């Protein structure tokens, strides 16, 4: 055990003595790992936040089907759906997008009593009368809105809304650019009366199959689509896998360019290293001991580079809010997000980053060191 400790101390001294090589290899590791760790953390954070909203949502989602996509469902079926055994709550919603001047906003039309619990007014109140709205804090900050201000939207400029409250939705990043209004006002805004984009159905546990059968009897001949929580969750996961795949494809190119840099940097000062190995062999070192020394050096430098990369990733997300990289995972945001970006730094990606760095540095140094340690010490010291 004492011999291994001495080799570890000698490896540390070698890294300190060859500062240039140590710094160059660390910089290469940091440049490769930092975007990778940051992207994985952001993706995991957004995925976790999205899945929380799905799990806290309805048990079933009912829409009509048009050209293979969700379409509006008439409200004439609402009373019959409420009478189905096992149904505890039915919530019709209108969800659409519209421009508030030059900024795209998500419009949610829902009855006051059906507003999600996660929507918490930080000032003002929830809408009570016609044409009253509650606005997300990013929209409010962007347009410098105050309680009592009025505005109209491009899709229906004749209709004027009055701001009565601002909210910050801690459970969803999309709430920052959202406008809540009554179901009736949303229908008038989009020119769609007596229809909903979907109907949320809350049910008793274990009754989804019976409810689906009753819905089939109610909606016979209609092109409807019924989706449960599990299906919605699969859609979310599929979407994030696609986003991660696009990022990975772009990152592989950068990774491929960075690998040669690490390999070259790991062998920086190769002639000097051959002389050192020759001296070590001449003084009685065995080949395995030389390789152990090299392995300890790469272990230490990989641990240092990966640790700095993790710290920089945390700073990138927490300090600079994922600037320039969040657009890969969240559509239609600016390069500098104006809301708190969710992120989760899990142990597994950090460990994988360390092992990637260790593997690359080992590939760049072990073979050349082994070749130098197997030749005559006299030849190595020339």
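Q: What amino acid sequence fits the structure above?
A:
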């Amino acid at each position: 055990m004492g011999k291994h400790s001495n080799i570890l101390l000698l490896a540390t001294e070698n890294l300190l003595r060859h500062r240039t090589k140590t710094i160059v290899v660390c910089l290469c590791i940091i440049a490769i790992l930092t975007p990778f760790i940051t992207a994985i953390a952001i993706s995991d954070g957004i995925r976790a936040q999205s899945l929380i909203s799905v799990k806290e949502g309805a048990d079933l989602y009912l829409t009509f089907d048009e050209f293979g996509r969700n379409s509006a469902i008439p409200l004439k079926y609402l009373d019959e759906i409420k009478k189905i055994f096992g149904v505890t709550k039915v919530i019709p919603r209108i969800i659409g997008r519209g421009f508030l001047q030059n900024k795209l906003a998500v419009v949610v039309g829902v009855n006051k009593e059906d507003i999600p619990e996660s929507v918490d007014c930080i000032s003002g109140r929830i809408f009570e009368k016609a044409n009253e709205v509650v606005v997300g804090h990013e929209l409010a900050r962007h347009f410098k809105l105050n309680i009592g201000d009025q505005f109209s939207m491009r899709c229906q400029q004749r209709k004027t809304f009055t701001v009565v409250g601002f909210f910050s939705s801690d459970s969803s990043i999309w709430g920052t650019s959202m406008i809540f209004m009554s179901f009736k006002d949303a229908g008038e805004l989009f020119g769609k009366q007596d229809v909903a984009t979907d109907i949320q159905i809350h049910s008793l546990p274990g009754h989804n199959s019976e409810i689906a059968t009753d819905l089939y009897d109610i909606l016979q001949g209609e092109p409807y689509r019924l989706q449960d929580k599990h299906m919605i969750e699969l859609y979310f996961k599929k979407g994030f896998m696609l986003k991660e795949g696009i990022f990975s494809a772009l990152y592989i190119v950068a990774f491929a360019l960075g690998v040669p840099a690490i390999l070259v940097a790991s062998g920086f000062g190769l002639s000097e290293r051959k002389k050192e190995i020759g001296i070590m062999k001449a003084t009685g070192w065995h080949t395995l001991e030389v390789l152990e020394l090299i392995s300890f050096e790469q272990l230490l430098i990989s641990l240092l580079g990966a640790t700095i990369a993790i710290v920089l990733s945390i700073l990138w997300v927490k300090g600079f809010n994922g600037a320039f990289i969040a657009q890969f995972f969240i559509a239609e945001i600016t390069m500098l997000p104006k809301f708190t970006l969710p992120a989760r730094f899990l142990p597994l990606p950090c460990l994988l980053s360390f092992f990637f760095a260790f593997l690359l540095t080992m590939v760049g140094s072990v073979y050349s060191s082994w070749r130098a340690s197997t030749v005559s010490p006299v030849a190595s010291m020339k």
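Q: And what stands out in the fold?
A: DSSP finds eleven helices and 13 strands in the chain.
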